[in-house]
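re: that chain from earlier
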Amino acid sequence: MDIINGIFSSRILSYLLLGYAISILVVVIMIVLENRSPLKTISWILVLLLLPGLGFLFYIFFGQNFRKEKIIARKGMRNQHRLHYLAHSQIIQLTEGNLKGNEIASDTTGIVRLLLNNSSSIVTSGNDVTFLNNGKDKFEALLRELNNAQKFIHLEYYIFEEDNIGYQIKQILKEKARAGVEVRLIVDDVGSWKLKRSFFDEMNEAGVEAYSFLPVRFPLLTSKVNYRNHRKIVVIDGRVGFIGGYNIADRYKDGDMKSYGIWRDTHIMIRGSAVNSLQSIFLTDWFFVSETELTDPGYFPVSEPVNNKVIQIVASGPDSDWPAIMMGIFHTIVRARDYLYIATPYFMPSESVLFALKTAALSGVDVRIIIPEKSDAFITLLCSRSYIRELLEAGVQVYFYQKGFLHAKTIVCDDKISIVGSANMDFRSFEQNFEATAFIYDKATAQEMKETFLEDQRNSEIILLPEWIERPYIEKVKESFARLFSPLL
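^ sequence. v structure.
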């Protein structure tokens, strides 16, 4: 009998192993047929082979590609034909140099046209920009503008924590809603996992409409967990908007002195017609989470010029036909002639962006990149470091920020183009997250951002190639192994 049981058990085990092997083979074929980049395809195959069982679950939850299937229908509130017409008119003005008082160069019309065509991003003029380079300035400005709201407040954040600063903002939102101001809040369900159901109940009872973006709940845990809303947008009365890297949590204001020190980030406050571009992104996301379409023209007030800055607000995500922000960054890199300064907390670029950076440096462009020496994500830090040697060999200057954790996502090029928003220099921001970034075409703004970069550089340590090569071998092994999974992080 024991022999029979043994044979029976062996057959069951054989069938299970055969079934598992067939399932892995099917998934591998699916991955190959998706025609992703070879690097991402190989990475997923490695995960499946090196992590039996667990790798299969990772793919089911995190690996499926829904970009072409458009998991979210972008049913905007805007007439697309009219937007294309308006945008084209602006491009003609830019080409002819008719934007009074603005020193934008004619060769920036290429990137303007690109962002129009790949994401319907409208170019706007007559804007003013205020940089908010620390938590104190950012939250003081936000609290002030929230208190001044008269008609509506629209907020969209990846992380919203109910700590000290989160509590202050929550109370203002409740008070404004009770006073008759329309208040709407979107938070990402994964990024704001700490928020309890009672938070939303309390907000709704006060008249604040609050929703989670793409909720993830068992047994509905699907690959939606892999497509997060990483945007940080605020629109108040259509007259002022905020965009950048700051979320709502105490650490963004006070830092984390136990782990990495101060939190160094960049946000901008915008006044002018570009605020309506932020509004359009918010209302499109609002339609998705609430199934409510807000079309009142009052949400898009006509604003008088407040300065002469030209801005395009670009949104991209898994619902997009093109990775618009990545393409805009790529175009900026390849058009650089004098300098290109980049600050990013996570550096895991696509092959095309990496190649463009090395090509620019080898062409004589002054390319500098600042990344944090300490990070809030250990694996991504290892991945970021795995790219440093080839950057240094191409002539790129790489710096480790020493003063704290650098979370700013900024690029400045040739005193002409400034880029700031929520998108990191990594695969996730380029291809999987819902992101929003401002492209600003203005000399004074670029010079201000350049000075901020140089200040960060003074608080950083330059990485020298000979010393980097001589590091312990085990560090290189860990970084190289982590890089295998960089397309998946």
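Residues 66-70, 73-89, 219-223 have pLDDT under 50 and may be disordered.
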